[in-house]
Design a protein that fits this description.
single chain, Rossmann fold, three-stranded parallel β-sheet
Length: 318
């Protein structure tokens, strides 16, 4: 039976992943932790919750003992746009935090799952059908720490036998928690603004394609790889996964099918635009498909329909 500890559980992914894993493995088998206590009561009250700063390795080890943890899902991180504002903090949380997780896992023989990101790629990477194994020369601190994190996780697997696994997540579209300060955040904000105001001003320019994924597919991918047969895994950290490749105007076109007077305008942020241009247009996810049967359920049309229905219910009720 899995006994899971999540770090950074109050962010965009953790909010939904905690609830998903509690449904799957039982509430008391999923310990949610975060350095913050600002989050939905649903996450903090539907099972055990503890405050944990991932820079505090001793407390991390104590909590693993206290709750008899055998798996850490390490979500605590500083994302791309926030990282550019405070690179030193991004280095500490993303590198030292992961190092602490891997060390605790080595000492206690735990499985570790760490999401990586499309941010591990840079301008010199092939941008269309980006291969699984290719050039990784990112130019953001977030990307640098994510590449180092992939390598470090592979190192702990080969050197110490720690069962480390990860996926390179695209930008995530979701309706429960807001995104935490990344370059792909526009793809969430656009839906909120469509429902609230029927207009959105994008900080990413027209024609800028990036990989995106809908949260149910993200939860599915994490669970599938967590449970995948290790004998089939040729790769570990981290697998490309893809679902849809979209630019702002593609999302707007889909939204207009439901809200015909929706208007998209642009006020491009040069920092986030430069990051977006350095990331792939679309990743090749054949290794994930071959090694653990990855397949997404949602395309942009299905994502748009579901997002608008759910946000309309949520925002009109509030
Ligand atoms: P988020 O920014 O929404 O949430 C991160 C959480 O980590 C927050 O709740 C924050 O309080 C917590 N945190 C920050 N510093 C901490 C510390 N020192 N100790 C403990 N907790 C701390 O991030 P997210 O979108 O949920 O991302 C989770 C993981 O998935 C990250 O590794 C991120 O790189 C990866 N990822 C996310 C996306 C995406 O689009 N959301 C895409 C690719 C990869
Ligand atoms: C970001 O934009 O920083 C994240 C990511 C793709 O890793 N959403």
């Amino acid at each position: 039976m899995k006994k899971i500890m999540l770090t950074g559980c109050l962010g965009q992914i953790g909010t939904e992943l905690t609830l998903h894993l509690r449904d799957r493995y039982g509430s008391n088998n999923v310990l949610a932790t975060d350095c913050s206590i600002k989050g939905p009561s649903e996450v903090m009250e539907s099972g055990p919750f503890e405050v944990l700063d991932v820079l505090n390795a001793d407390r991390m080890a104590e909590l693993c003992d206290k709750y008899k943890i055998n798996t850490i899902i390490h979500l605590a991180a500083i994302l791309s746009a926030v990282g550019e504002k405070n690179p030193q903090r991004a280095f500490d949380v993303n590198m030292i935090g992961l190092f602490n997780v891997l060390e605790v896992a080595r000492e206690k023989h735990l499985q570790v799952f760490t999401p990586s990101s499309i941010a591990v790629f840079g301008k010199s990477t092939p941008q269309d059908m980006t291969p699984q194994d290719t050039i990784q020369r990112p130019n953001t601190i977030y990307g640098v720490t994510k590449v180092a994190g992939e390598l470090l996780s592979d190192y702990y697997y080969t050197k110490f036998g720690v069962d480390t696994r990860g996926i390179r997540l695209p930008g995530i579209i979701s309706h429960m928690a807001m995104p935490g300060g990344g370059t792909t955040d526009y793809a969430v904000h656009i839906f909120y603004e469509a429902v609230k105001n029927r207009r959105y001003t994008s900080f990413i320019a027209k024609g800028t394609k990036m990989d995106m994924i809908y949260m149910p597919d993200c939860l599915k991918a994490i669970t599938m790889l967590l449970e995948a047969d290790p004998a089939r895994l040729q790769h570990r950290n981290s697998f490309n996964i893809a679902s849809m490749s979209v630019a702002p105007e593609d999302v707007a076109k889909e939204i207009k099918k439901h809200i015909p007077d929706f208007e998209l305008t642009y006020d491009v942020d040069p920092v986030r635009q430069a990051i977006a241009e350095s990331w792939p247009n679309r990743m090749d996810d054949r290794c994930a498909r071959e090694e653990w049967d990855w397949e997404p359920d949602y395309d942009l049309a299905a994502t748009t329909k579901d997002m608008l229905e759910r946000l309309s219910a949520k925002l009109n009720a509030g």
